[in-house]
Amino acid sequence: MMQFQRKFLLRDTLLLGISLAVLTMAAFTSSFGGRWYSIAANMTLAGLSLLNLAMLVYELSDVRRRIPLLIFQGSYNLLLLGRVYTTWLQNYDRRLDILEADGYDSLYWSLQILAISLFVVYLAYRAAGFLFRKRELSVAVEGAKKIWDHPLIPVIRQLSRWVLYISSLASFFSLGNTILFVLRNGYLTSFTETAGVPSIVSRFALFFTPAFAVFLATLPSAKQMRLPLCVYGVYLLASVFTGRRNTIVTSLLMLVVYFVLRDNLLPKEKRILTKRLVLLACVAGLAGVYLLQMVAYLRSGILGTGDSFFRTIISFIDSQGASFRVVVKTIDYMEFFDPQTTYRFLLFPLELFVTNNSIGQTVFHTDPIISLQTAEFAESTNSYSHVLTYLVDPARYLRGEGFGTSYVAEGYVAFGIAGVVALSVMIGVAFRWFSSMMGRSWPAIALGLIAIKSFVYLPRNYALIWITDVFNVTYLCFLLGLYLAAQLLYTLGTHLRRGTEPPEVKA
């Protein structure tokens, strides 16, 4: 085993060195300016490809533990580089037009910034090993005993399951209302108008996600998971009809990370994720990608039935990689931003958090921020996704379309390369934490699962959105209330049946 690990370490280190050499040569080539930027862009993409290969070799050497980093790498390449890859392969001569770059210089700098970010994430992940090595060893030795030995776990599991069932009614009502709104008015209209849902229903629906996360965090048996997984699965499938594919994709990726890390707690003979099951999951994943792209065709009024399966997959990669233009347009329009105020873009999720909850409104007397795509909102907001789209293409923005945002673009516009590096270090450390989270307490696992959904989508989301997604008042109050309720029931002597015996864990 050690020889196997050393072989992989040698390979990924060698590939990493070659990729850095190529990226350095690209930077040197760009110094000549002019058409040399085109050559430098090609070299940077080659260096990026080698960097991805080095990361892949590293991850596959211990994929059951490094699955979070593998998932992020896939998300990063799909959301930020998908269109770059398809354009280089199919429309190389039109790459400036398709990638919406004003020149080869901005194209090169965009790719170089993306390469730097991915490299720093990888480096931070590996360097953070010393912070979590003790925890990782504990997980390897003790497995899930820390969770199963906790006396409140059966009670917490039962309570979270019932909250999940009850809150699912409100979630399905809200989801159904949104689907009907989209069907009547169109997908783009959902960005310029809101679907009316009673306040009490929308508030109760907020418990659906944390209840499911807590239930998973108690490490239930396969039998105990059947109905909750069915409920959650139906919700995800129904959410496809809203047109917003990120909900189902991020949730499925969270489940992939959970089940792989959970499976790693069990002895080899007890593991569920066999090679056959993984192969079936990959086939199902390709089928899911095909169906998601069909949804995109229907959403845009294009049937797309004439495309082959392969062409549909390529179209999916291309459409998902549209976030590259956020980075390239940030480079092209940097002169229009005031460097004294650009830090506010990073803080927008926190601003949204303060103004859009009842506590903040009571204490600070703030009005809630409703993100609608109007000229008035774009000219007054600190939301980078709204500001950039309106700055570059006002007509597109007012039609309900947009570029979105990215942690890379927000970091760069706020603090330059230093901002990108700082955010990338944060992401690398976070994903190292995710790799060891199964050895932690049930609240940490629950919040970790919620955080994963935010972190894997950071290439196309606000840089600090994970703070408000994870540590919001609703979730924290729910965890506290659940713990207190479980403690009360346990103290009173209420005994909730375990259902089935816990899976055998590592001794």
Sum up the structure in keywords.
single chain, 507 residues, mainly alpha, 25 helices, globular, transmembrane helix
Large-scale geometry: globular
Mean pLDDT: 84
Tell me the strand percentage band: under 5%
Helix content range of the residues, please?
A: over 70%
Q: What's the total helix number? A: 25
Overall strand count: 0
| Poorly predicted ranges | 496-501
Order of helices and strands: HHHHHHHHHHHHHHHHHHHHHHHHH
Task: Specify the structural class.
Answer: mainly alpha
Count of discrete structural domains: 1
Tell me about the largest β-sheet: none
Gap between N and C termini: 20 Å
Rg result: 23 Å
Transmembrane segments: 39-60, 67-86, 106-125, 162-183, 195-218, 277-298, 412-434, 441-458, 464-490
Protein name: O-antigen polysaccharide polymerase Wzy family protein
Keywords: Membrane, Transmembrane, Transmembrane helix
Pfam families: O-ag_pol_Wzy (PF14296)
